[in-house]
Amino acid sequence: MIKIEVKILSYKTPQRYAVRRAVIAAQTVMGQEYPDLLVKIAEVRERSEMEKITPVVLYPSLMVNDQLVCVGRFPKKDEILVWFQQALHEEV
């Protein structure tokens, strides 16, 4: 099984929801090529925890396999696909 861990950093629920939808859309696309792919999604909601990772807490950020890939904006599905591909290549 191939595993990718994603963390959505945002203390605002609508922002987390929007980023989660993009992550799930990317997961669906990746699942067609990698049927045994497991994408584990976690949410970091506490401001103090987010500040340990990024100085930008007003807008959402995204981590893939413990790497901060997107800071202070809403990532697009195509960007997330690139980050997922990179994470898979790092695993090999």
Write a structural description.
- Helix content is 45%, strand content 26%.
- With 92 residues, the chain is an alpha+beta fold.
- It has a single domain, classed as Glutaredoxin (3-Layer(aba) Sandwich).
- It has a four-stranded mixed beta sheet with strand order 2-1-3-4.
- Helix 1 (13-33) packs across helix 3 (77-91).
- It is globular and about 35 Å long.
- The largest sheet has its strands arranged as 2-1-3-4
The count of strands amounts to 4
The major β-sheet equals: 4 strands, mixed
Superfamily (CATH H level) name:
Glutaredoxin
Strand percentage, roughly?
25-35%
Order of helices and strands: EHEHEEH
What is the molecular shape? globular
Count of all domains: 1
CATH topology name, in short, is Glutaredoxin
CA(first)-CA(last) distance? 13 Å
Residues in helices, as a percent range: 40-55%
Mean pLDDT: 95
Rounded to the nearest angstrom, the radius of gyration is 13 Å
Give the C-level CATH assignment.
Answer: Alpha Beta
Number of helices: 3
